[in-house]
Amino acid sequence: MSNYKEKDRVDIILANPPFGGIVANNNEKNFPQNYRTKESADLFLVLMIHLLKNGGRAGIVLPDGSLTGEGVKQRVRQKLLEECNLHTIIRLPNSVFQPYATVATNLLFFEKGKPTQEVWYYEHRLPEGQKSYSKTKLIRLEEFNPIKEWWNNRHESDVSWRVDIKTIVESGYDLDIKNPNKQEEVHEYTSDELIELMTKSMARSYDLLNQLKKMIQ
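Above: the chain sequence. Below: its structure as C-alpha cells.
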C-alpha cells in the first residue's frame, strides 16, 4: 500500500472487490500492522480509502461479513467512519450474485475527508412475486429507480432508515444493522395446512422413536 503516493490518488472509485477470498503470498504485509488480515474484501476497503483524494467519492460492493466482527474488521470500519463520510448503505437481497455466490452483499457510498455523522440505509427488495435472483432472473437496472427517487429526497419508510454515529460507535462500529421498520410477514394457515403440518410432525416423531428403540435394543 505504501507504494501508492499522492500522485496515484483518485477522485472516484467504483468497484466490486473480490470477497470471500484469502490473499496469498503474504500480500497483507503490504498494509499497516493494524489492518493486516487474510480477507480480501477488508484489505481492498483499506486500500480504497488510501487511494481516494480528500473529497473523493466511492461506491463499492461489500459482503455482510465486512460490516460486522471484532479485531481487524472493527478497526477497518472505524477507519472508514472516521476518515470518510459513509452516508449510504444499500442492502441487497442474498441472491444477487447467485449462482456464483450466496453471501449477502451491500452497496457502500462514501466521501473521504469528513467523518461520518449518520448512515442512511435502504433495503432493496426483490420484485413482487419473485423469490430470488438467478441466472435467468437477473437484477434489472430499472429496479433501482425507487432508490434514485429516494436518493435526493430521503425519508424513513418500511425500506429506509438512518442511524446516528453515536449508536454505531456504541455498538463497536457494527454496520450490520437490520431494518427496524420491516414488517414481519404473518402467514395464516388453513385447516388443511395445519393438519398436513401436524401429520408431518407426528410422522417425524414416530421415526425418531423407532430409531431410539433400535439404539437401546
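The two ends are 66 Å apart (CA to CA).
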